[in-house]
Write a structure and sequence with these properties.
The structure holds three protein chains of three kinds. Chain A is an all-alpha fold. Chain A contains 15 helices and two strands. In chain A, about 50% of the residues are buried. Chain B is an alpha/beta fold. In chain B, about 35% of the residues lie in helices and about 25% in strands. In chain B, a hairpin with a 6-residue loop joins strand 4 and strand 5. Classes of the chains: A mainly alpha, B alpha/beta, C mainly alpha. Chains B and C meet through helix 2, helix 3 and helix 4 of B and helix 6, helix 7, helix 8, helix 9 and helix 14 of C.
Chain lengths: ~350, ~270, ~325
Amino acid sequence: MHRAGLDRMSGRATDQAVVEPDAPTSVEKSQKRSIRRAGTPMVIAAVILAAVWLTGNLSAIVPSVVIGLTEHAPLVLAATGFALLYRLTGLINVAYAETITLGAYFAMHLNTNYGLGFYVVLIPAGVLAGLLSVATYLLIFRPAKLRGVGTLELIIISFGLSIALRYGLQFIFGTPVRFFDVPPPDSVNIFGVGVASFRLVALLSVVILAVGLYLFIQRSRYGLMVRALAGDEALAQVSGIRPFAVTVLIWFLAGLAGGMAGAFYGVGSSVSPLLGERAFLFILLVVLVGGIWGINGVMAVGVGTGIALAFMTLTLGKVLYAELALTAAFLVVLKVRGRRLTESTKV
Amino acid sequence: MVAESGTAVRADLPHRTMPRARLTVTDVSKSFSGRTVVDVDSLTLGDHPIEGLIGPNGAGKTTLMRLIMGSLKVDSGKIRLEREGRREIELSRLPAHKIAQSGVVKSNQVITDFEGLTILDSLLLSVTPARREHPLHLAGERATYDEHRAAIERQLDDFGLEDSRRVALSAGEKKLVDIIRCLLLRPAVLLLDEPTAGLPGEVTRKVMDAVEKLAADGTTVVIIEHDLAVIWRLCAQVTFMAEGRVLLRGEPSDIREHKTVVESYLGQGHV
Amino acid sequence: MVLDTFLITGLFNVVMLIGLALLLHLQLGLTRIANFGVVGFWGVGLYTFGVLYVRVDWPFEDPIQFVVCAVLATAAAGLCGLLIGWLIADLDVDGVLVGTLGFATAVAILATTEQGLTGGARGMGGLRFPYDSGDVAVNELIWLLVLVALVAGILAYVWLVHRAPYGRLLIAIGSNEPLARSLGKPVTRTKLGLFTITSALMGLLGVMYGVMVRFLEVSSLGIEVTLATVVGLVVGGSVRVLGAVVGVLLTVGFFDIVIQSYLPLPAEWYTQTIPLMREVLFGVALILVLVFRPLGLLGHMRRDRLMKRIHGG
């Protein structure tokens, strides 16, 4: 029902506007785009496989896929949450890194101080991170936006918030790393690779959460509102959508995903104030590159990145080299994509 | 006349007999998300001093101008610029700033301005040659103004912009600054997209006078305008576009003869 | 005159950050290129210089050895500026953020992994002043004066840029790229040129820093340099010539000079509390200034006054 309303509204809006109606509504656009380019993540996967084949290191494939999927599962979750915020509010929120970190701290705090099991604290930690995310929106980003602060300035504001939270955490908790109080994981053998059992559960949880988020956005009535809002706030408003409520919802969901990703990161290794910052660059790269193909693209590129990181770590011998190579590769993809962006000018 | 040097003034040259720059559009198409917005087989602009481009909303007029200016790239086809005594240039292969440098300039439909720059800044920007904008050439400011002072002051006077050492305030002022920027470049081809929308009637007349004078001095002018009275009065040749295609082309009287076609798109009372 | 090493180091940091913030003013304030990887270009200068100076067996002695290494390191930073500039030239602000941030991370990674060259996490010594007065404090003072001269030069350049057609072109590009293009301005080339020159100079400031501290540490490649530069510029006023100077003095100057040298605080605070407080407050300052006074203390660019001053009327 909203769909019809939107189309009617958009038709009228373009007639009224002096500009050429060469832009369909963005919901339409993104749907078309995702249909037209659905094959591209496949191409990326094929390229990765080809690289594997070319390096002749076939024995590393299976472990890479297993490790990539299990160890880097939080990356997919975090990237999905970040992409939600980025695509629907247009804001690159650098402080998302600290949402992740705080999710890990919330979970660890509940786990170590109250003796609650990891899976018990997962959802509350996510909810707390989500509330924190909403708080930053209400206290900082919304007032800034209402005052007409520009996109670039909003990014710098989020950078400032990120720094304040990060060093604030160091101030409170100190720099030493902390650990969850969980029983030593039992190892499960998958295709000859030993994987801690909780990582499998983590993978499963990430899949469930990511699919749930995806379905929510793509299928539910709220999801439609969210997408409509992303297209055009004024238009969404006259169609009976309350931008404020939906925006708060977006911030909460993004924080929820980030916080739970943080808990998974934390239980997988350790918790420190720099946890989120370490993950942030790759989240950003995955979202900017994968975002070309919509939220599905973000998930696909996230999975691909996990596998590629695992593979390169195995073959190059150093995690840092793998990160370096992948960062360079992503920047080149962005460079190529950038040529298309120049078309959106109005002069 | 020459955008790069921005120095030549040709008011003293004989009018009307001067050969004009011509734009040739061949098999150009452009689509967005699978929808064809411009699909022009063959169109030559510049056989007459002032040409009009008319048609309903969404006809692809603005998009065609943006394709000529290079701010949009053609999907296929060629746009060429011919100027007397110069080699033909294929505009559709050039980056946007090279197209402008080759003498094709456009005044914008959407109000655009440089935030933070004063009116004088804006005008000086358009006349400053590239060599003066080098990172190590830091002494050219006064000289640039001295060279172009007369032309700038005359335009400011003509259009009644009094204090140029301030930021343009209203939409009308910004539009006027945009047009003066174009006039100062003394372009070979001037594209005007709704040049007078949002300007008061008196200023509209001044703009049109200036455009006519520029055309008389040898510039090829192409106008998109919804006020057809302006088109019928100024243009020797009119192109009627709809749904991305050229439907009619000819002298204003020819176009007005196709009353049914024009009215079916633009509504009654325009012809 | 009493040469307080703390004071000289503090002053050195302040002056260096003024230099960096002035360069960022050209990139971010005028041309609106959001360089979040200032530390990367600075670090390339620092580490290239250090590695060349310490690891290479030069056939000549110090003043020349320093000059050769410094020139090469500056050029290396400039080359990185050209490369990154090319990568981000036609990206929107999101792409610029990820490109510059990614570059800074890459520099930090390489400095850590290439232990054979850089000493990795252990750090690398072996740097020294290209002269020797016999007294370390005097050497440092002289080096501070060299830096002051360099940064004064950068300040003079920025001042002139504001009064030249080049500055107007930068502002025009920063304000409306497509419009600048439609007036025939070579936008991409101009941005590349600017990014190359300013990145090279950031690298040169890294060289200056390396000589001053005489010991390379990977930890110096963290977020702190970028943060201090951005905070200084934003607080002072990103579009004004003196914004960088005022802002860095008020922020970094306050912490690194007033608090470090003049406040009677317990000694243990200086190692833990103060540095963390500094970063937290810097972050908060960024938020507050951008929400309540986006153009910083000095405010608008005031081209109107400048045009009147230059052209009368």
